[in-house]
Amino acid sequence: MTGAKVPAAQNTLRILRFLASRKGPVAASSIATALELPRSSVYHLLAVMTEQGFVVHLPEERLYGLGIAAFELSSAYTRQDPMARLGEPLLRALVDAVGENAHLAVMHGRDVVYVVEERAPYKPSLVTNVGVRIPAHLTASGRSMLAGLPPAQVRALYPDRDSFASRWESTAITTPGQLRAELERTRERGWAVEEGDVTPNFASVAVAAHDHRGLPVAGVALTFLEHKTDDERRAELVGHVRRTAEALTRRLHGAVPGGGV
């Protein structure tokens, strides 16, 4: 059965694709105009998608953006073998170059899920492993991806203090305001960092890989003993991570922030 015979399904997908192509939330009237659909139909479809979590409604601004369910669908793709297969040789080369533990993670709701782990010889073991989930706001890889999302998406993921509750003991970030401040620092630096938020005495640096829209789909990170890594060494590690993330972005046919490919 073709899409023409199921117009509601076709228009639902058209709306989702349109929202995915925008840099931020848009008005329902803009959707109707761009897709040449009746406003009544657009409002009806948006209401259903909002109820199911695929769209988030921002009532004060009268705008609509992609919801958590849509984000989980996109991250589900990156958790499949293609992402691991593309990333694994790059992380292996990264570990060979710097001699530190590396991993590749993707977003799943408010968590990151680790899809590739490459261990360096004679380095301490870590709590992360393939398939492990950790709250994204605690990790460098999660922060690297959150910093590249539209602000409305971050607000939808972390609307209040309850969004930060977890079994992890860290209290580094416990409010939306603290998260916004950390993500702003991440954007200014161009890379993310966490220091002891996941495991005491360990720090991580991370840079996000991006898709064709320039949106973050994975975080490349190195983890190392904090007290044995001075500023010069940390800058060296950041450079290696950035080059690896850019290489993964190119493999994904993505857009490197700043206009590169």
TrEMBL record:
InterPro entries: ArsR-like_HTH, GAF-like_dom_sf, HTH_MetabolicPath_Reg, Tscrpt_reg_IclR_C, Tscrpt_reg_IclR_N, WH-like_DNA-bd_sf, WH_DNA-bd_sf. It comes from the Bacteria. The keyword Membrane does not apply. PROSITE patterns: HTH_ICLR (PS51077), ICLR_ED (PS51078). One of its GO terms (molecular function) is DNA binding. Keywords: DNA-binding, Transcription, Transcription regulation. This is Transcriptional repressor IclR. It comes from Kocuria varians.
